[in-house]
Amino acid sequence: MIKKEFPILEFDPTQEAFINPRMISEKYPKLPSHLLVCFFKDAIDQLFENEEIVHLTTLRGENDLEIFKFVNHDVALIPGKVGAPLCAGFMDECIALGSKYIMFCGGAGVLRSDLAVGHLVVVDSAIRDEGTSYHYVKPSRIIKSNASVRKLIKTYLKHAQIDFIEGRTWTTDAFYRETKKKIKMRQEEGAIMVDMEQSAMIAVAQFRKVHYGAILYGGDDLSQEKWDSRNWSNREDIRLGLTRLCLDIVLTFDALKMKEDQQ
């Protein structure tokens, strides 16, 4: 009996659902094992114009998903979608098509004013204030990201002498309900950023037993009395650079693949 006081707490660990993402595997080509989820449309457009990526296929539905592939690397690329259900759902479908080593690059609001626009944060955990993750992983307040993947990301950034910090994000479904009281509470819980996807992405990766890591860059500021956009969505140089950086990083996930092959 899984019935609880609140439906969101009724986690069912059964692997088989009534509809499963693998049902699409006969309709679309198999994807590379490495996948980059990129939230920056401007960066994707630039990569396409530069002929660094080519269009691979389109997952058709009420919300289509364009899938690209890097020309010089066996890595697929998809645009990130806003919100946990759509973003994590599309990742689940890509996993069904063969993706196993997944890197996410995006931006998020900051809950610390000293985090400058463009400052990189390696996501080590997320506060689960959304709904999707509770259908993939049993209820908990915090979900931790993959430690092995995180180690690879940090090692790469250190060797490249790129400044970053490791931290927790607050994942929420409702960006119009980020009240001052909630922001203060999440800050006290250790969150330094706020986003809409990470706890769900981590949960899907855990449920499907794939490797997932994420880098978010500092965007708008929610730590002060008044919201400050900081013009974060118009930082094309940061966004394209971070996309290329995350491509390089996901290629280092081969170390995880080699370890699995030896087992």
Radius of gyration: 18 Å
Helix content: 25-40%
Low-confidence stretches: none
> Which CATH C-level class is it?
Alpha Beta
Q: What is the rounded distance between the termini?
A: 37 Å
The domain count comes to 1
CATH homology-level superfamily: Nucleoside phosphorylase domain
Assess the beta-strand content as a share of residues: 25-35%
The helix/strand series, from N terminus to C terminus, equals: EHEEEHEEEHEHEHEHH
- Can you tell me the CATH architecture? 3-Layer(aba) Sandwich
CATH fold node name = Rossmann fold
Can you tell me about this structure?
The chain is of the alpha/beta class and 263 residues long. The protein is 30% helix and 27% strand. It contains seven helices and ten strands. A five-stranded mixed barrel has the order 5-9-8-6-10, surrounded by five helices. A hairpin with a 5-residue loop joins strand 2 and strand 3. The longest helix has 16 residues, at 236-251.
Record keyword descriptors for this entry.
263 residues; alpha/beta; Rossmann fold; five-stranded mixed β-barrel; 7 helices; 30% helix
Sequence-ordered SSE layout with sheet pairings:
Blueprint: E1 34-38, H1 41-49, E2 53-59, E3 65-70, E4 75-79, H2 84-96, E5 101-110, E6 120-129, E7 142-144, H3 147-159, E8 164-172, H4 180-188, E9 191-195, H5 198-208, E10 211-221, H6 236-251, H7 254-262
Parallel strand pairs: 1-4, 1-5, 5-10, 6-8, 8-9
Antiparallel strand pairs: 2-3, 3-4, 5-9, 6-7, 6-10
Helix pairs in contact: 1-6, 2-5
